[in-house]
Amino acid sequence: MFPTGFVWGAATSAYQIEGGLTADGRGTSIWDSFCRQEGRIVGGDHAETAIDHYNRYRDDVKLMADLGLTAYRFSVSWPRIQPDGSGAYNAKGLDFYKRLVDELLSYGIDPWLTLYHWDLPQALEDAGGWPARDTSKRFADFAATVHAELADRVRNWSTVNEPWCSAFLGYASGEHAPGRREPASALRAAHHLNLAHGLAVQAMRAQNAGSQIGGCVNLYPVTPATASEADQDAARRIDGLQNRFFLDALLKGAYPEDVLADLSHISDMSFIQDGDLAAIGAPLDMLLVNYYSRFTVSGAPGGAVSAAAAPTDSGSPWIGSEHVGFVNAGRPVTAMGWEVDDSGLYETLRRLADDYPRVPLYISENGAAYDDVFGEDGTVHDPDRVAYIEAHLRTCHAAIESGVPLQGYFAWSLMDNFEWAWGYGKRFGLVYVDYETQARTMKSSALWYADTIRHGGLLGRAQ
Ligand code: FCB
Hints:
The chain is of the alpha/beta class and 463 residues long. The protein has helices at residues 14-17, 30-36, 53-67, 78-81, 91-106, 122-126, 134-150, 163-171, 183-205, 229-252, 257-262, 276-280, 342-355, 383-401, 444-455, and strands spanning 7-11, 71-75, 110-116, 156-161, 212-219, 222-224, 286-291, 295-298, 325-326, 361-365, 406-412, 431-433, 440-442. It is globular, with a radius of gyration of 21 Å. Beta-D-fucopyranose is lined by residues 13, 16, 161-162, 165, 218, 290, 365, 412, 419-420, 428.
């Protein structure tokens, strides 16, 4: 059994589900432009309709209520609310989120709002994107406005979803929008995403609305493939860039010295200005953690690269550590090629509790893609996903028992959706979506999750 008050949620993001890319005055985002470029998205998929949540949000909220969710994590689309990322706001865009929030509240579902889940207004990218410092300030203004409009009914706020992805997949490997491959710019982007977080927290706090405010990071335990010095150094490096660069900044107000040293040939970091880290490291009410898998790495030349590589031709996101190989450690993998390892979640949570100032933790994403099949009898049987979520929830429970301040869990994702560079080929949903008809069907995992929530804990081992 989980503690009373444990938050049982599911998560989505605006770009992956809404569609309606030109509806009601929405501006263009970097993902709109990216999807139009040939070869960027598997199968040439795009999100013009996505799963039509913009029109179907009421039905989708009803589904959440049927599942018994106590909370729903979603993101707002910046270009829908402020088409050019600066200047005028679009009342119709804001109204959509007000209607969504009111719908959630009418069912007693707690809205958890993420301000940025990767859909930067194209106009801001044209002005330099995240490598430009001004983008952080634009984001803080945007955050303040959305907060002023919605804080009366939304209590839980998070700033930037997975800054690692925005910075290093967006500006170093080019696998994500805007698709640039500029290591030095990626580093500037990483800092400015952190700064955007810090300035947004400041701006929201100043409104004294009693909000709970957090940042959101994607964490991976990193294991050296062998005990060799080269492999241990590889693990230190990847852990540094993936985890500590963001955790130390947000929770300790400092960048790790070893990571700055690893990157010193790429940049002199002169873009870090006095006061930035104080803003970035200001106390948070909570930390949102997205967890999917573990990395096993090798620093030996010619080390094998695992299947988790990008779907499209791309450079390395691991700037300064391009020599590191990602090794398949032999665990079962999901349809993404990501190794299933719930012990990695335990390690991650323990590390947060042991090495960082104590802050309430939430798993804000966790889940798996599998090749789901819509059965002839109209059901979708996904035992692998049930097993994945069950194992990770069991781990959450063990972490809580061991004293980790973990207070909630959001499954990724509520529904199948547009999985970025992978398009619609990877299904993460608890709910199956027929992309032709937009029909929604609860998979076995959704029914299982609903039972779990009703019970307030795990009923027994999944078969
Ligand atoms: C995370 C993203 C989310 C989704 C999952 C599978 O990195 O935040 O949008 O793509 O991975």
